[in-house]
């Protein structure tokens, strides 16, 4: 049998700027107040729960804090050139815009685009890695929704097998 828990919103949110790409073009720099929704499926532990809600919220909240009030960039974007040197990140976009930002204000993610769907996949991988590190092995599926605004979310579902995938493998 499989059971499911869900945690969402409240303290599972982050504010971040990004520039997604579409059709080879880069959007204008803008930001969102993202809400994170997470579902975890799995077998019940001896105490009759999939995972403690408090522990699940803590690990997702920590991931949110890494992105909060940062510029989120896709390290593998085909439409942006990103360089880092001497504590500064320089971004050149397909729209011929150039941004120079302190590295401390930037989070580089190992993804190809900063869409809600790709952020959801990145989150799922990070959650899977955190669960594995904590020795949690009963969770079989992680589903993450990243809501950019009310009623508009991208989703990703990560089945967990014997060899769990991390965010670097997605």
3D structure, described in words:
The protein is α+β, with helices and mostly antiparallel strands and 170 residues long. It has one domain: 6-pyruvoyl tetrahydropterin synthase/QueD (Tetrahydropterin Synthase, Chain A, 2-Layer Sandwich), CATH 3.30.479.10. Helices cover 19% and strands 46% of the residues. It has two helices and eleven strands. It has helices at residues 53-67, 116-133; strands spanning 3-18, 21-22, 25-26, 30-42, 70-74, 80-85, 88-93, 98-102, 106-109, 139-149, 152-159. The strands form three sheets. Strands 9-5-1-4-10-11 form a six-stranded mixed sheet. Strands 6-7-8 form a three-stranded antiparallel sheet, with no helix packed on it. The longest helix is centred in the C-terminal third of the chain and has 18 residues, at 116-133. It is elongated and about 55 Å long. It starts with a strand and ends in an 11-residue tail after the last strand.
Question: What's this entry about, in short?
Answer:
The chain has 170 residues and is of the alpha+beta class. Helix content is 19%, strand content 46%.
Write down how many β-strands occur, each being a DSSP E stretch of 2 or more residues. 11
Q: What's the shape?
A: elongated
Widest sheet, order of strands: 9-5-1-4-10-11
Strand content: over 45%
Percent helix range: 10-25%
Instruction: Find the CATH topology.
Output: Tetrahydropterin Synthase, Chain A
Outline the secondary-structure elements.
Blueprint: E1 3-18, E2 21-22, E3 25-26, E4 30-42, H1 53-67, E5 70-74, E6 80-85, E7 88-93, E8 98-102, E9 106-109, H2 116-133, E10 139-149, E11 152-159
Parallel strand pairs: 1-5, 5-9
Antiparallel strand pairs: 1-4, 2-3, 4-10, 6-7, 7-8, 10-11
